[in-house]
Design the sequence.
């Protein structure tokens, strides 16, 4: 009988530990995802976080009012691309969007999220949430990603104007 109690207690402890490992309400940050996938140690993840914080300090941050900050009908291109890029995202004032990435074109409707800073690209499976920043857009996995979790690899910006 004593062994049965020990097993029951051990089972309950394991169940509680596993429950604590579930998804967090605020969503998984890019660094958490990288650490989980790459198996980084906590010290390595902290060093990565410090580098990321320094790198993102100069990135455009979420706009106070996305509807006023977005440049409607202009194509935003992935960071580092030029105006001739085949990839891009255009948000139109009529509630539609056009997305071109990896040789595929998708268009459809979008809807603003209640915070007025983000919108959802309806019908887009990969990174359907768009955070509007001052001068940029960020593609987010879901609406639980924190507004300050911005990275250059998810950034779309207006292309630089080439001088003659």
Sequence:
């Amino acid at each position: 009988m004593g062994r049965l109690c020990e097993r029951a207690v051990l089972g309950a402890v394991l169940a509680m530990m596993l429950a604590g490992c579930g998804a967090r309400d605020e969503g998984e940050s890019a660094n958490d995802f990288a650490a989980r996938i790459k198996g980084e140690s906590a010290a390595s993840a902290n060093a990565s976080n410090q580098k990321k914080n320094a790198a993102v300090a100069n990135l455009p941050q979420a706009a106070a009012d996305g509807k006023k900050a977005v440049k409607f009908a202009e194509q935003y291109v992935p960071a580092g691309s030029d105006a001739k890029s085949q990839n891009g995202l255009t948000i139109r004032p009529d509630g539609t969007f056009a997305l071109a990435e990896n040789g595929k074109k998708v268009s459809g409707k979008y809807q603003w999220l209640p915070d007025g800073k983000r919108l959802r690209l309806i019908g887009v499976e990969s990174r359907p949430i768009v955070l509007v920043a001052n001068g940029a857009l960020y593609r987010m996995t879901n609406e639980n990603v924190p507004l300050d979790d911005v990275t250059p690899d998810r950034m779309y910006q207006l292309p630089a104007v080439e001088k003659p």
Observations:
- DSSP finds four helices and eight strands in the chain.
- Residues 66 and 116 are 6 Å apart (CA to CA).
- The helical segments are 2-20, 30-38, 42-56, 66-69.
